[in-house]
Amino acid sequence: MIASFHHDPQTKAVGAHTRSARTPPARMDAVMRLTGGNIAFTLAGAGPVVVLVHGLGGTRQTWHDLIPTLALTHTVIAPDLPGHGESDPPAGDYSLGAHACAIRDLLLALGHHSATIVGHSLGGGVALQIAYQFPDRTERLMLISSGGLGSEVAPLLRAATLPGAQGVIAGLARIPMAVTRLALALVPPLAASPDADALARVLRGLGGAQQRRAFIRTAHTVIDWRGQSVSATRQLGLLHDLPVLVAWGTRDTTIPPHHHQTFAERVPHAVMVEIAGAGHYPHETNAPQLVAAMGAFLSTTSPFEYSEARWTDLLTAPHDRGASTAPRRSKPHPTDSIVGEGVVVTQRD
User: Fold this and answer.
1) 232-275 confidence digits (pLDDT tens)
2) Among 17, 253, 282, 323, which residue has the least CB neighbours within 10 Å?
C-alpha cells in the first residue's frame, strides 16, 4: 500500500495527552493519499480508536455533534466514503465490501490495527461488512439506524434506483435548502418525522456530479425498486462474541424501527438504545442522549479478541446457533441512568 498523509499546516496536531478532560480536543481535517484514491477524513482526540461511517449520500459532517465528546477519551476517525464528500471516487466498485476495504486501508495507513466501528444507515451496512470481512480489526460494533437488517426502506430511496433518478436529484440539489426543507416537511411520511433538515442537507450535498454518481451507484448496490437488496441476517451468528450496540429513533420513516428490534432479538447480547421522538438521524437531532449511551457502552465493554479457531467454529455452526430467534428477558443497562429522558436502553441476557 502506498499512502501519504496531508493536512492543513495551520491546523494544530492532536495532543490529548496534556489536555484536561474539559478542554475541547484538537481536531483536524486531512486527506490520506492511498493507491485506491484519496480519502478525506476528520481526526480528533487520543486513545482507543473509534471510526464513524456515514450513510448514503452523506459526509463526515453528519458526526459534527458527536465527535467532541467521543474525542475526550478516544481517537476519532470520521472519513468520507469513496465518492462521497471530499473523497475520490473508486475505480468503479461502490459495494459494501469495497467501502469496508477503504476503511481498513485508512486505518492501516494511520497506523491503527483495529477499532470500534460505528455506522449510520448505509454506514451500518459497511460496519457489519467490516466485522464480517475483517473480524480481527473490529473491537466493537455500533449500529445507528442501520441498513442491511431487513428489506423495507423509504420510497424515496427506492426511487433513487429508477431510470432518470440522477437528473431528478440534480434538480432537487439546486433548490435552496429552506425550500427543500419546507417541501420535505409536507411529504406524508416525513411530516411526522424530525428528519426534514437532515435530508435537505443531504440533497444539497449532492450538487456535484461526483457526489450524485456515488449516491446512485452506491444505492444500486444495496437497494432496488422493491427495497433493500442486501441483508446481513444470515451472518448474525458471527456477532456472538462481539460487543454490539444498536440504536434507533422511534419516528424513523427511512428504515422501520422493527428491523432493529428484530436484530436485537437475534443478537441477544446487543445493547439496545431506543430514542423516543428521534427519526433516522438521532446522531444529529438527539446527539446528547445518543453519545451518552455510546460512551457508557465503550466504557463498560472490552474489545473483541479475534480467534481464528473460534471464528471457524461460528462460521460452521448450525444456522440457529449463536443467533437466537427467541426474545429473551430484558434487564436495565448501566446507561439507563445517564442517557436522559426519552431514551430506553436495555440489554438481553
Assistant:
1) 888 899 999 999 999 999 999 889 899 988 998 899 899 999 99
2) 17
Give me the residues paired with residue 5 across strands. 32
Q: Specify the 3-state DSSP secondary structure of 174.
A: coil
DSSP 8-state code for residue 20: -
Residue 224 included in any domain = no
Residue 267 lies in a domain: yes
In this predicted model, what pLDDT tens digit does every residue of 188-211 receive, in sequence order? Answer: 666 556 887 888 888 888 888 899
CA distance 42 to 44: 7
| Residue 252 known to be catalytic | yes
How would residue 5 be classed by pLDDT, with cut points 50, 70 and 90?
low
Domain of 83, CATH number, reads: 3.40.50.1820
pLDDT value at residue 1: 41
User: Radius of gyration of the chain from Cα atoms?
Assistant: 19
80, 88, 195, 252: the catalytic one is 252
Give pLDDT tens digits for 268-296.
Answer: 899 999 999 999 999 999 999 999 999 99
**CA 301 to each of CA 21, 36, 264, 324, 335: distance values in angstroms, whole numbers, following the listed order:** 21, 34, 17, 21, 12
C-alpha span between 5 and 39 (Å, rounded): 10
**188 is a domain residue:** no
Q: Does a structural domain hold residue 135?
A: yes
C-alpha cell, 295: 460512551
Q: Give dist(CA 63, CA 208) in Å, integer.
A: 21
Domain hosting 82: range is: 3-153+230-348
Q: Report which of 161, 163, 82, 92 is spatially closest to residue 126, judged by C-alpha positions.
A: 82
Q: Is 280 part of the annotated catalytic residue set?
A: yes
Number of domains the chain contains: 1
pTM for the model: 0.85
Considering 121, 145, 146, 193, which one is annotated as catalytic? 121
Burial class for 212, CB neighbours closer than 10 Å (0-12, 13-18, 19+):
buried
Active-site residue, selected from the candidate residues 99, 120, 259, 280: 280
CB 127 within 8 Å of CB 117: yes
